[in-house]
Amino acid sequence: MMWIRFCLLALLAILCGFVPVAGWSQRYTRSDRELAESMLRDADADVQKHYYDSKFHGIDWRARVQEARKNIETARSMDDAVSEIAALLDSLHDSHTFLLLPPRTHVHDFGFQMEMIGDRCYVVRVRAGGDAEKKGLKQGDEIRRLTDIPFHARISGGLSTSSTSCVRSLSFD
Predict the structure, then answer these.
(1) Domain edges within the chain
(2) Once rounded to an integer, what is the mean pLDDT over residues 32-58?
(3) Contacts made by residues 144-152, CB under 8 angstroms, sequence distance 24+
(4) Looking at the predicted structure, is the pLDDT value of residue 23 above 70?
(5) Which are the contacts of 32, defined by CB distance < 8 A and separation ≥ 6?
């Protein structure tokens, strides 16, 4: 049974290795959509063929696949489309079945790191001499919005914190 899970994950990782992760643009093209649909078909076929529970823990797998397909058709970016496939696999609530993409080749460094603590986002590190420090960002500051999306609207649950924080409005060049 573990061998089947391993094979399923390995096959998904290999299939995802062909995704041009580093070159995804903001535009969601027809070829992007076709690639995402192909990834969905492959993931669906692999789960149906290799998943250890033929009843899929009681979820309606066909309905979930159809919902993911519909959402991929209306996605605004390749990231959104791939997120649909990851969410589909996550719906199995199985720690051994997930979408594993190759690492991105380009990393953006804005001079600070942030982490979710409970349902809030905090600055956990600020690089000395960097743009973030020059603009006044400090460790412990709470980040409430990033590109006009409030964090609390996207994240729920988790640990809570009683830490006092300073909320800043920042713009980086």
Answers:
(1) 2-90, 108-173
(2) 93
(3) 146/121, 151/116, 151/119, 151/120, 151/121, 152/119, 152/120
(4) no
(5) 24, 78, 81
CA–CA dist 10, 112 (Å, integer): 34
Q: Which amino acid is at 147?
A: T
Beta strands in 68-151 (DSSP E): 112-117, 120-126, 142-143, 145-146, 149-150
pTM for the full predicted model: 0.50
Is the CB of residue 105 less than 8 Å from the CB of residue 22? yes
Superfamily of domain 108-173: PDZ domain (2.30.42.10)
The top-scoring range by mean pLDDT among 37-41, 111-115, 162-166 is: 37-41
Positions of E strands within 10-167? 112-117, 120-126, 142-143, 145-146, 149-150
Token duo for residue 73: 């058709």
pLDDT at 109: 75
The band of 37, judged by pLDDT with boundaries at 50, 70 and 90, is: very high
